[in-house]
Write a structure and sequence with these properties.
This protein is α+β, with helices and mostly antiparallel strands. Helix content is 37%, strand content 24%.
Amino acid sequence: MRVERLFEIVTILLSKGTVSAKYLAQHFDVSTRTIYRDVDVLSVSGIPVYMKKGYGGGISLMEGYQMDKAMLSDKDIESILLSVGALSATNYAGIDTVLDKLSVLFKSQAVTDWVEIDFTDWDTNKSKDTRIEDIRKAILNRLLLEIEYLNSYGQRRIRTIAPLKLVFKARSWYVYAYSLDKEALRMFKIRRIKRLQVLSSSFNREAYLNLNSDNELLSDKANSYSVALPTTMQSTLPKSNFTELILKFKPDALYLLYDWYEEKDIVPQEDGTYVVKAMFPLDEWVFSHILSYGDKVEVVEPLFVRTEIKKRLKNIISIYK
């Protein structure tokens, strides 16, 4: 345990520069006396760590010190190489060169190709899709983006956004950004960005990240659901942006359920069917999701969703008369 603490002390000093003994004591939940003993051990071991008393003092490493790669275990090296290799899934520029350099540095024979991470669709030419790479550059350089965005209502809108971070959630890539048009934080689905341009105007990333986003960190489709849904339904909708659906699936639909639902939410019934209870956003997507199962699903509750599905099925039938 002490060896691990000593190693972490060095990594903290490398990343933070100078820290107080009190800070380290609170971080490791030990006494400051223990921290002073650890510093002595590191010094005796040849680590150039020193303490400075008084205002602006603390514990720090000699300027220019670099951690010996021998301090990393084979498992640590494998983890580093795997993490760096995973970045290739985002078309991160120059990542192959970085990975080659690290492999030479560590002289590693570790198996790092046991998994391949690819977030693109089967029919997507990822070499031509530079959206994630362009967004990454804009985030790192703190540059605004102009995007043509297709929202969940089928409307194309030109938005100017300050991109804050890339997010991979629920099988999709998003960019979490501040919309200058809406003056609010938003989550934009990258597949719906049809065109983007990195602008020369910069922004203060830290200022936007410090905004209170408790009520704003929602996808476009979950933000204003009543606009997206038919006006005949709006009077029957609950006030929340989400509702609990109870869905009943046929036995042969079981393999499809694991793509979207947790096993604990899939309850087998005596007649061989499966009942699923799940929270869904109230928007156009939820109806498309239900209809995607065809005749393998029945909406049990709520009534307004069941009614809307019946209406849409009638409209589909009318097309094929």
